[in-house]
Design goal:
The protein is an alpha/beta fold. The chain has helices spanning about 35-40, 85-105, 120-130, 150-155, 180-195, 210-225; strands spanning about 5-10, 20-25, 50-55, 60, 65-70, 115-120, 140-145, 165-170, 200-205. It has a single domain (about 25-230), classed as 3-Layer(aba) Sandwich (Rossmann fold). This is Acyl-protein thioesterase 1.
């Protein structure tokens, strides 16, 4: 079986007991989010955590004149509507998310000690995975996330992660994935998929990026999901 392409950072203390898997956005690579490992490993609470930053394949993007770039699925139009979604490409990549998780389970990490997440396209994948994964995991986060494949997810969804915590952060000045699209995803996953523990955070002035406050909130969320470092949280 072909290896899964990713930037990988080993746990400071072996053997690893937790894993964080972060999926990047359009045109990026795993290196784009690998700073999280360096930042989080400054905190002893994450000494037993392994970090995986997958690399998307190079595919032609219809809305970018078919230019090839790293992407988890095609973007036919920048409307991000369900009618223009690359549904099959998205589902294929959600299965890839499952493969990265299974790789960690096979290496000895318990599924409840695995947190997945991503930015933009990667966030869309992580949220979709929460609806259809065949096993329960520890947590899911979505930074500037959206959902274009609601009807297909309703066909495929199960209740395995209905109680799994989801953190969704979004900037109110995001010109790419607009705030209402994030709010629409939140409404879909809570009201239709039935996710019970989905927190939505709006960051004033933040565009299509992250911010120090969002990263701090995310780190606290991960600690809560995995029940680590709580006695040292400020």
């Amino acid at each position: 079986m072909a290896s899964l392409s990713a930037v990988r950072v080993a746990a400071r203390c072996q053997p690893a007991e937790q894993a964080l898997i972060v999926f990047h956005g359009l045109g990026d690579s795993g290196h784009g989010w690998s700073f999280l490992a360096d930042y989080m490993q400054r905190d002893p609470a994450f000494n037993k955590m392994r970090f995986i930053f997958p690399n998307a394949p190079m595919i032609p993007i219809t809305s970018n004149s078919n230019m090839k770039m790293p992407a988890w699925f095609d973007i036919p139009e920048w409307t991000f509507s369900q009618e223009t979604a690359d549904i099959e490409g998205t589902i294929k990549s959600v299965r890839t998310v499952q493969a990265y998780i299974q790789e960690q389970i096979d290496s000895g990490i318990r599924p409840e000690n695995i947190v997945i997440g991503g930015f933009s396209q990667g966030a869309a994948l992580a949220m979709a995975a929460a609806a259809i994964l065949p096993f329960k995991i520890g947590g899911v986060f979505a930074l500037s996330g959206f959902c274009q494949i609601k009807d297909r997810l309703m066909q495929l969804k199960n209740d395995n992660n209905i109680d799994t915590p989801i953190f969704h952060g979004h900037g109110n000045m995001d010109p790419v994935i607009r705030l209402p699209w994030g709010q629409e995803a939140h409404a879909f996953f809570t009201k239709e998929v039935g996710i019970k523990n989905y927190s939505f955070h709006v960051y004033n002035g933040m565009e299509h990026s992250s911010s120090p406050q969002e990263i701090q909130d995310l780190i606290q969320f991960i600690k809560q999901c995995l029940r680590i470092g709580q006695e040292k949280s400020a």
